[in-house]
Design a protein that fits this description.
Number of helices: 3
Distance between the termini: 42 Å
Order of helices and strands: HEEEHHE
Structural class: alpha+beta
Largest sheet: 4 strands, mixed
Strand order of the largest sheet: 3-2-1-4
Length: 80
Amino acid sequence: MNREELKRLWFSLDTTNVPERKEIILDIDNNPHWPGYGTIEILSDGPNGYCSFKTHQEFPMEYLKTRKEYKSGEYKIIIK
């Protein structure tokens, strides 16, 4: 199978029955040199495509409260 055939096969896949996944992953650092910092990752995957955003912030929960994804209530929140 060549590259062109793989590309046609990939773009012809049926994505209408893909379950939608929306998650916010909050990982709070336990580093004594960086107290109060954490990493936030916002994931969205489904029929409309895949999207990922990751950032490292001081006071991550305060930052998260300002995000539209958090305010929408559609995302599952995972705290590590």
